Input
Amino acid sequence: MAYFEINDLVVKHKSFDGIKTVLDIDHIEINKGETFGIVGESGQGKTVLALSILQLLQTPPGIIEKGEILLDGENLLKKSTHQMQRSIRGKKVAMIFQDPMSCLNPVFTVGTTMVDVLRQHHKGMRKKDAQAEAVRLLSEVKLADAESIMAKYPHQLSGGQRQRVIIALALCCGAEFMIADEPTRNLDVTIQASVLKLLKELQHSHKITVLFIANNMSLVSAFCDRVAILHDARIVEQGDIRQIVQNPQSDYTKMLIQAVKSRPAVPLQDAERPVLLKVEHLKKYFDINDEIKHQKHLTLKAVDDVSFELRRGEVLGIVGESGCGKSTLVNTILNLFEPTAGKVYFEGVDVFERSRKEGNAFKKNVQIVFQDPYWSLNPRWLIKDIVAEPLDVYENLSETARVERVKELLEMVGIPESACYQYPHEFSGGQRQRIAIARSLASNPKLVVLDEPTSSIDVFSQAQILQLIQDLRRQFNLTNILISHDLGVVHELSNQIAVMYLGHIVEFGPAEEVFTHPCHPYTQALFDSIPSLDNVGIDSLKTLEGQIPSPINPPSGCPFHTRCAKACEACAQWAPAPIQIAPGHTVSCLLFERGGTKEVVL
Amino acid sequence: MRHFMENLRPKWKSFKESMYLLAKNKLSLAAFIIMLLLIFAAILAPVIAPYPEDVNSTHIEDMLLPPSGEHLMGTDELGRDVFSRVLFGTRVSISTALIAVGIALIIGVPLGAIAGTSGGWIDNLIMRITDIFLSFPSMLLAIALVALLGPGLRNAIIAIVISWWPWYTRLVRGQAISIKERKFVQAAETIGTSKSKIIFKHIIPNCISPVIVQASMDIGGVIMTVASLSFLGLGAQNPTPEWGLMISIGRQYFPDKWWYCIFPGLAIFLTVLCFNLLGDAIREILDPKTRKH
Output
């Protein structure tokens, strides 16, 4: 008999529109020590499944109609809440949630939380022993300096550290079955790789069975042995991960796999295009007063000496871990922040020194599409008013002409014109992002900034939105700046790539060249940490150890030397200048400055 | 005209949804119906009231009659029909409350939105002024102001507005600060939408929900304050049919001629309770998080 089994489980949800089936699973079985993946887009019932196992599903509105969930032969659905609390949750089944910040109590230190949980589960454990145990567990999840982590509050930790603390908490009571609900969703790729590796190691050393929930096939292919694809509350396919990746049976699986396969952008042919945007030595520093520590006038160097050129029709992809200054750079270029130093020229005109009228012209020509379409559309406005917002500023149209124009714009992005008189909440994430794109095109801009345009929507809609962006770009000869931490997206859209680290551009060049021959050690590390369908298994992921240093107190010399595998003594002393290694391809690294060639590094 | 109708349709749809939610909670529905009845009574008081002329005229021969078929709530010391006067009192109380809360909103909401959106010294200035107003007990401030301006319903309204607007400013400022960080405000900034349009079209509509809830509850509070001021002789003056004033005079004949006090008192109780329940109902409609399953 299998270690964990689900038979004929039906869960329903009662709401305003009636009763809906949210989960209808015939059979799943997981063997001991196995890693089992559940993949599907949001709203397909993944989280409902996880919550049903632990009896944490809210009933009502949820209704578990029938079925059984067997763990080691015991039916979890038959247990009382009290039994679950006492002998199952934590003891046998542990859960790692998506968002580590919201499941750590912000008013307790990590130590307090851990000691509390330990003492609750091991009755009669002395406080001292519990503390020692907590330190041991924290070092087991590879948190450097576990003692000092114990004294910290959740907000003082980085996302990766928090997720490690959550994993340590899950280990506290010796659970042998772990449910990981998209544990790396909000983490950077480099951190994601190291958290996944850690989970895999712990799984082997503690003989843990893992149920891994994800929305992305490539992640599952890197981490799981077997996988089930969840679509519309049902399992459409399950089996060995290799087989499914190589030979998917259902259409849905094929689409999921297609969605994560990268299709590199076609390089631009004609080289002679006018420069549209020129950024020269742009700096943006923030003054910070740390009043608690009595340190005044600290400077946070969010963007430090950035220069680049963008020609008409090009797409510049800016990549880097969170906190590297991507968004600050773009916001400064867009003039949402006052720059500290440097110049930005748009069509040869200095953006920062211009009259009010020119300023409006600049805003008309430069538009932005934000990351989260749930917050970037005013929930109280009708779609037609949202899309027409730029029209109201720059053109004085009659209501009829205005609505006509909005309908045109909506048609371009594939939204039916009946949407005009609806509110944003009536649309899905992908549709909302289309509406946001329609708005960004309303003023006929020349440059559209895409700030993580697909990171908060599902994989399918993602692929469609990317296609749409490409089509529109060709149609209107747009120039784009694309910010993303998803290198697949960047690969698909960009012709130029800028890799940012701690406020600096460490590598800049044509996309094809950077992707095939990444030169800066950071770029290499970044690319190696992405799971892909081509190499199955956790060993294909390389990790980048260590935390990103604070931009308030950046390392001397090369900013990356603290985490760089190829660092030498000189790196801590000399700041590298950008070196051109191929036409249009620059790298800021001492390895190249000392006369090293690309071959040496590779 | 066509566009007007098209614009109206989605609003009608969301109105229907709200009505559905309201009807689901029996208590809210009851409050809503009572409110409709009160407004109905206020508007149609001259038609419904058995003795509409009793607002002003006196009939000494009928003084202080107990409730009967002829006088449902009895008569007062000047022989006037208490029922008719309570009905006309609905008019006075509800209109005063609506005017006072309305003016307080008109002053308070934009100031709060401006303070929250602008920050810096503007924020500081506006908020310190509200702090000054808020540091007086509101009833005391109202009494002092009426004493200064002279008694009367109009001055009572002025006093209430002055002591009430800072609450809305505070409420809206807090909301505005969080709304300002939303991406659609940033989007409007990159689009080039003017500052005033951002405040009035983006910020205010999105922070209005808690204000509506607060305002509907405040209507009850204002009705009580008006009644209290009148009770103290600072609000409505004889012969205005005002509930607080009626209780104040009726007090002299209590408990022998109980109807003179009790019925205006019940009217205050019912109206205030109704608006409080309505506030809760509106909160439930506007904020799905507080909804019970």
